[in-house]
Amino acid sequence: MASIIIDLEASMAQFFKAKPNRSKQVSAKISLEVTHLDHLGAGIAHQDGKIIFVPGALPGESVRGQLTEQKKRHARATLQQIVTPSPDRVTPKCAHYDQCGGCDLQHLVIDKQRSHKQDALVSLMARLGQAEAETLAPALIGKEWGYRRRARLATFYDRNTKHTTLGFRAKASKQVIKIAHCPVLATPLSDLILPLSKVLNQLSSKKALGHIELIEANNGHFVVIRMTKAMSDKDTEKLREFALSHGVSLIVQGNDADLTLICDTPKMLDLDSDELPYYELDNGVKLSFTPGSFVQVNAEINNAMVNQAVDWLSVEANERVLDLFCGVGNFSLPLANKGAEVIGVEGVPEMVQQARMNATLSGLDKVSFFHTDLSADLSTQSWLGKVDKLLLDPARAGAFESLQWLKKMKPKSIVYVSCDPASLARDSECLLKHGYKLTKLGLIDMFPQTHHIEAMALFELS
């Protein structure tokens, strides 16, 4: 029955129907038998003909879960209790594992992580892309801990306590989890977290702190601090003392994206500055980058990945090679180093400038870079035309729009480097329709301890 509320101040009645208090409706715990993992690393169980996803559960485990989401054909549950654990379950190494949103497979032994990722990759390619590789290449694997050469940490200023928390975001949340160390970070970077948190809390301008970037490069360790307003001289001096005592290069990034190196006399850094971080590949190619620009976080795997891409494409001198989504030249320059004529195209103008600088830095003149939105109409682009080889390294969205211009490019071979097997599978279907065959497919374990699957695929014109 409808209730009546009398608002005496307004002298008027409002009619409403009482709604159930959904926050108090908690589903009962259910028993589940987990059979396998999905490609995002969640356990999969079945009940009453419905698929139930249980993050944190492993194949072969009997668990108790609580339903959090109900759909027509699937449901989601939180893991409440492990009744019978899997022999592949291990204790997570990170003390922040249950809260931090960074890693989500530390509870699974590393060999099983990698076999799961490879199986998921092959399955997705077959199911979503109708593509089966003639050859499954050995997975590119490296260190399982301490592999990250860069990370972005978040800050949170509590107006009540006047304290700034430094850490990573919680799972599916904006909350910042205070961390003391991170075992997937390179050890020198992980060791900086606690002393950095201490000095940040000594700044008078700590309310203006944004994210913090930690970088391990060939020319040292870098701390990049994002500030939303100018710092005082006293704050600058505190940061300079921190940089000296910890042997790091400390850079402050302002609202206008300008980079200031905090040293005896603070100075602005340009794109051609030899004080920017850089990394070197096995073949001696040197690539500098600005904080915030995309570079692969796993140096060991990146080297192996670049070498494999160059090998699979098998470029010859004077062949014309197109590198789409080229970034700062991670693949373009090693390909040009083989004597090919390389065209690199990127959607971020600053990265295009950096790629040109890197070509000059490495003494490579048979490479040119262009800024283009690769999801737009490319028909008027001067660089679009017949090429011998094509390399694709897109973001998670994939390269579907760019592949609509295959008839103009007509490459004999295509190496596709993917950070999302679902978009790779979708784009593979497009390539198969254009007469290409999938000759090689391989897992790239760029992010151990996480569900993330990276891959490389070689397509050749039938």
UniProtKB/TrEMBL annotation:
InterPro entries: 23S_rRNA_MeTrfase_RlmD, MeTrfase_TrmA_AS, MeTrfase_TrmA_CS, NA-bd_OB-fold, SAM-dependent_MTases_sf, TRAM_dom, U5_MeTrfase_fam. Residues 23-81 form the TRAM domain. SUPFAM superfamilies: Nucleic acid-binding proteins (SSF50249), S-adenosyl-L-methionine-dependent methyltransferases (SSF53335). It is an enzyme of class 2 (transferase). Keywords: 4Fe-4S, Iron, Iron-sulfur, Metal-binding, Methyltransferase, rRNA processing, S-adenosyl-L-methionine, Transferase. Its EC number is 2.1.1.190. The active site is at C419. Catalyzes the formation of 5-methyl-uridine at position 1939 (m5U1939) in 23S rRNA. This is 23S rRNA (uracil(1939)-C(5))-methyltransferase RlmD. It comes from Shewanella benthica KT99. The lineage of its organism: Bacteria, Pseudomonadati, Pseudomonadota, Gammaproteobacteria, Alteromonadales.
